[in-house]
């Protein structure tokens, strides 16, 4: 069974940083790109970032480019999302997904508030 489990969410002040992790199991993790997607009541679902299977290529949504950084450690079957210079509008549930978005984790809540 394919599973993705996110961790690392929490409450952070504006301008702060947080690192999310997504651990995969039940499939050959190192063979697949992984997405990060977020969901807010105001904007709905927003694609955040993707990293290819070996970490050689990454891409970001416009609203996070230059502030977030995606990476992976295939020895740990884990993808990370480093969130820097956080803004209140980054408050969301963050999910990792398989490339076709046919498998999702349960998500972690990131709250940016002073």
In N-to-C order, the SSE pattern is EEEEEEEEEE
Sheet bearing the most strands, described? 6 strands, mixed
Strand order of the largest sheet: 2-10-9-4-5-6
Mean pLDDT: 96
Q: Provide the low-confidence segments as ranges.
A: none
Q: Give the CA-CA distance, first to last residue.
A: 40 Å
Percentage of residues in DSSP E strands:
over 45%
Principal-axis shape:
globular
Structural class: mainly beta
- In angstroms, what is the radius of gyration? 13 Å
Helix content: under 10%
Number of helices: 0
Question: Could you tell me the number of beta strands?
Answer: 10
Provide a brief overview of the structure.
The protein is mainly beta.
Structure overview:
The chain has 114 residues and is mainly β. It has no helices and 10 strands. The strands form 2 sheets. It has a 6-stranded mixed beta sheet, with no helix packed on it. A 4-stranded antiparallel beta sheet has the order 1-3-8-7, with no helix packed on it. It is globular.
Keywords:
about 110 residues, mainly beta, six-stranded mixed β-sheet, four-stranded antiparallel β-sheet, 10 strands
How is the topology of this model organized?
Layout: E1 3-7, E2 10-12, E3 18-25, E4 34-40, E5 44-51, E6 58-60, E7 68-73, E8 78-83, E9 92-97, E10 108-112
Parallel strand pairs: 2-10
Antiparallel strand pairs: 1-3, 3-8, 4-5, 4-9, 5-6, 7-8, 9-10
């Amino acid at each position: 069974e394919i599973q993705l489990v996110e961790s690392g969410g929490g409450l952070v002040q504006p301008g702060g940083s947080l690192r999310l992790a997504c651990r995969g199991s039940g499939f050959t993790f190192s063979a697949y790109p992984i997405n990060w997607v977020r969901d807010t009541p105001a904007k709905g679902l927003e694609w955040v970032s993707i990293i290819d299977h070996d970490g050689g290529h990454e891409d970001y949504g416009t609203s996070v480019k230059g502030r977030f950084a995606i990476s992976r450690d295939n020895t740990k079957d884990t993808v990370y999302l480093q969130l820097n210079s956080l803004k209140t509008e980054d408050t969301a549930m963050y999910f990792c997904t398989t490339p076709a978005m046919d498998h999702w984790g349960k998500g972690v809540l990131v709250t940016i508030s002073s």
